[in-house]
Every structure is written in C-alpha cells, then in structure tokens.
Amino acid sequence: MKRVLITGASSGIGLQLAKDYADNGWNVVGCGRNTQHIDALAQERDNVTSLRFDATDLDDTKRALASQDVRFDLIILNAGTCEYIEDGRIDVTLFRRVFDINVFGILNCIEALQDTFTPGTHLALMGSTAAYLGLPRAEAYGASKAAVSYLSRSLSVDLDAKGVTVSLVSPGFVKTPLTDKNDFAMPLMVSPEEASLAIRQGLEKKKAEVHFPKKFSYILKFLATLPMACQFALVKKITRNTQ
Ligand SMILES: NC(=O)c1ccc[n+]([C@@H]2O[C@H](COP(=O)([O-])OP(=O)(O)OC[C@H]3O[C@@H](n4cnc5c(N)ncnc54)[C@H](OP(=O)(O)O)[C@@H]3O)[C@@H](O)[C@H]2O)c1
After folding, report:
1. Given this model, what pLDDT does residue 241 score?
2. Ligand 1: nearest atom to the Cα of 192
C-alpha cells in the first residue's frame, strides 16, 4: 500500500487530502499541532495515523518524524499560515511568524526526512498563486510563497539525480479557515474537495507545478509575464474593486 505524509492535515486543504488519499486506499500519516480532526479520522479508518508536532520546531519535527520508520512514497508539505500587513508597514515579528511555518516548516520536514528519500520519492511543496505577482498587503505571505517556489525549482534540479520528484502546488483561493478570515473579494474560490482533486490529479501526473483553478492561475501567470510597471498598474486597478 502506498504511503503519504501530509503536514497541515488537521484543517482545510490538508484534512481534505488526508480523507481523499485514505478513501483511495493510501496509508496516510496526517500531521498537525491540534490533531483532533486527524485523530477522529484515524479512529474511523485503520489506514490513517495522526502525528502531532510543531513544524516550526526542528527538534520536535525530527523527534516526531523519526517515529515513522518506513519511507513515504509521497510527502505533501502543506502546513502554512497567512497574515497580511497593514498600511504597507513592515512588522518583522509578523514576517518571522509567516516564514517560520511557510518556509522553515517545509525545510524542517525535509531535513528530518531527507535520509529516507529513495528513487521514486515524490515531494510536494505548498506554494500559492500569490507568489506570481506583487499583491497588496501580501508582502510577508507572498514573499514566503515565492521562497517556496524557488526552493521547489532548485530542489527539483538537485534531487532529480537521486530519482526524487519535486512538485510545487500553487492554489488560487480555496475555502478554508485560512481564507474565512479574509475581508476582501476572492474571485473563483474553490472548495477543499475541488482543491484536493486538482492536487491529487496533478501529483499523480508528477507535474512540476500543480496550479488551479486554471482560469485564475493562467490569468495571473499571463500578468506576471508583463513588464513590472504594467503588472503594478493592473494589480492596482483590479484590487481597487475587490478590497
Ligand atoms: N486556502 C487558500 O486559499 C490557499 C491558497 C493558496 C495556498 N494555500 C496554502 O495551503 C496550505 C494549507 O492552507 P489551508 O487553507 O488549508 O489553511 P488552514 O485550514 O488554516 O490549515 C493550515 C494547516 O497548517 C497547519 N499548521 C500551521 N502552523 C503549523 C505549525 N507550526 N506546525 C504544524 N502545522 C501547522 C495547521 O495545523 P495546526 O494548527 O493543527 O498545527 C493546519 O492544519 C497553506 O500552506 C496555505 O498557505 C492556501
């Protein structure tokens, strides 16, 4: 039976992925700090295990993951958060919180698991379409996801020689507790079920980048090819009506 490890499986996209992989016969290890939802899933299904650790803490991450002595076919490093800055004012503490989980949470898991990688291991890193363009108030979140995007592309090159595939996952808006906090319009938002399907289908094909919903992600990808001054003017115009 194939094995998948999913971080951030206690809520939102990660929880849906855990349910869907379990339904499809995978052995699932679902991780989080507050594991009550994964614990409940693990009680219903014998192919789900819940693993509690704080991914921002390297020692805690290593301790928890060392308890898993079998290699994973698929590792989805999805745990993350989103915080927006106010009035363009930089708040370094906020940046550290966001980078701590979105970037260092991924790095901590990779450091803890890298010795278990074998040819065929598939690593999926959770990015965001927010990384494509400079969006208002997204300085910390967008920069953290841009770091994940670079990390994914760079690691793909280095790990290819070892037979390890790296995929970047770039969702648009997905309805989860993370986006429930947003106070602005979120065009073409999809459900966690739709997000999970797009992610699982894209990862099944071992895509370098799994991005969705396509109508949204392709528009942003196109805007990102324009000169920076045009991007800036268009983002300003578009977001003026949605904020
Ligand atoms: N929703 C969207 O529109 C959207 C769009 C693009 C990208 N994403 C990305 O998708 C990922 C999942 O987001 P979501 O929307 O599903 O949000 P969510 O419902 O808030 O879930 C976030 C998950 O991350 C886990 N997490 C946060 N901090 C953690 C820590 N220090 N250690 C371990 N786990 C931690 C949370 O678990 P615990 O609190 O139990 O630890 C939770 O399971 C994030 O990386 C997010 O940036 C989301």
Report:
1. 59
2. 16
What residue owns the CA closest to ligand 1's atom 45?
Answer: 80
Ligand 1 site-directed mutation target among 81, 84, 193, most atoms within 8 Å of CB? 81
Q: Cα separations (Å) of 65 from 5, 7, 125?
A: 10, 11, 17
CA 182 to mean position of chain CA atoms: 18
Tell me: pLDDT of 242 over 80: no
- β-pairing, 48-52 with 27-32? parallel
Query: Which residues are registered as beta bridge partners of 6?
Result: 30, 76
CB atoms within 10 A of CB 15: 23
pLDDT at 136: 94
Confirm or reject: Cβ of 13 under 6 Å from ligand 1: yes
Torsion sign, CA atoms 35, 22, 57, 64: positive
Q: What is the pTM of this model?
A: 0.97
177 lines ligand 1 (CB under 6 A): yes
> What percent of the chain is modeled with pLDDT above 70?
99
Q: Which two tokens stand for residue 36?
A: 């009550």
Place of tokens 């690691």: 155
State if residue 199 touches ligand 1 by the CB under 6 angstroms criterion. no
Determine phi and psi for 197, rounding to 5 degrees: -65, -45
Q: What is the CATH number of the domain that holds 37?
A: 3.40.50.720
Give the total number of structural domains in the chain.
Answer: 1
Whether the per-residue pLDDT at 140 is higher than 60: the answer is yes
Q: Supply the range of the domain harboring residue 155.
A: 3-242
